[in-house]
Specification:
Length: about 190
């Protein structure tokens, strides 16, 4: 049993390490989220996972309004939006939610909020443990929390780069306008 715990801890840390290494490429948030979900399915040994994002394009950019899914047996299969909406309804609050197999026709569900600037902007969903009993462990909830924190960090970094770019362009426009106002020769 102890070896199993150590093995699970190692797998979780290795998955988080891979995710953190991928956070350096802020140009591909969609790819990072998609790859993270595929890694989560393998690491968590669950039926499927999803990431559901809100519609705030100012905060989320390319991720706004998107639903990402990955599953353990048919990578090309995507779960329908209605099923994800039903699962999201359980996790409307600010805190993580764990739905036991007894409450959900034999499938455990964990819903972990993704926060950005103190707002919930999305949710990670894990459905159906593949082990006997299908119970969710603390390893599972900790990994979901870590992945949600990494995605939050990625979103914050993307947002800060966008703000920096807007500030830079504003400074250039102000400088250009002041040059135009002072010298007719360079105007325009």
């Amino acid at each position: 049993e102890y070896c199993g715990y150590l093995g699970q801890s190692y797998e979780n840390m290795a998955m988080v390490y891979r995710l953190v290494r991928s956070l350096g490429d802020i140009s591909s948030a969609v790819q990072i989220v998609d790859e993270s979900l595929r890694n989560m399915v393998e690491t968590l040994e669950c039926a499927w996972v999803a990431a559901v994002f809100g519609r705030d394009t100012d905060l989320l950019g390319d991720l706004a309004g998107r639903v990402f899914t990955a599953n353990d047996h048919e990578p090309e299969r995507r779960y329908d939006h209605e099923a994800v909406e039903t699962l999201k309804a359980w996790g409307r609050g600010e805190e993580p939610v764990i739905v036991t197999p007894e409450e959900n026709d034999g499938l455990a569900v964990v819903i972990q909020p993704i926060r950005l600037r103190a707002r919930v902007v999305g949710r990670l969903l894990m459905v159906g443990k593949n082990d006997e009993g299908g119970d969710v462990s603390s390893f599972d909830t900790q990994l979901l929390d870590a992945v949600a924190a990494c995605i939050s960090s990625l979103l914050e970094t993307i947002k800060l780069y966008a703000e920096q770019n807007a500030t830079f362009m504003g400074t250039l426009q102000a400088l250009s306008s002041s040059l135009d106002a002072k010298d007719r020769y360079t105007r325009g």
